[in-house]
Predict the 3D structure of the following.
Amino acid sequence: MSLITAKNLSKAYAKGELKVEALRDLNFEIEPSSFVSFVGPSGSGKTTLLNLMGCLDKPTSGTLMVDDTDVSELNTRMAAAFRGRKLGFIFQDFNLIPVLTVYENVGYPLLMVQNTPVTERKERVLALLEAVGMADKKDKYPDQISGGQKQRVAVARALVTNPKLVLADEPTANLDHKTAYMVIDIMKKMKNELGTTFIFSTHDQKIVGEAEIIYSLEDGELTSVKGVEKPC
Ligand code: ADP
Ligand code: MG
């Protein structure tokens, strides 16, 4: 069964008198445990789509099912609970909390949304820091580590609640090429180990090729899908 199903999904913004059709009539399905990218130039609708899948915004028309939930029917409180339970987020500018250490940043979602006993919390944070190769930096603050290291910490933070789906909006845009590949590799490794679905957006054609399934967006429309659906 699909993890995400979009049917005739559209999103329009009112911009003064103008209507901007950010997404037009998208239809797609994403299976669990997939590694998927959405590629397209600036303004093609990538962030809008990730925001819809992340329950941060609602479609104008059509339906979007995420893990059997019609996200357009969630109110603000339900959407926040859904995000806390099922989703992880990775951002272009890392969004680590500067006054918290690496260790505290990764543990933060567990404090905020899930009431995890302290020993279990420690174990999970340390295991994830180990998995992304940042255990030796656990007591550093964000301004003491590099951009690539920050994004690895962000990957660990996104996974700490054991979400079904991690959404990453241009996660490599602020990284050099070599570091960008390393971050994508870590996401892929975590997908293989944990079975988490990763969806990332990018405008970088080279990075996009690392995904198993590649959707291209142009002016809010899906123009192509490449890649093979994994056998069940
Ligand atoms: P991308 O992430 O691919 O750069 P976006 O999803 O940010 O694309 O934007 C798609 C289109 O929607 C653009 O034309 C953009 O100007 C417009 N848009 C995005 N967010 C808003 C908003 N909050 N209000 C009005 N227009 C918006
Ligand atoms: Mg964007």
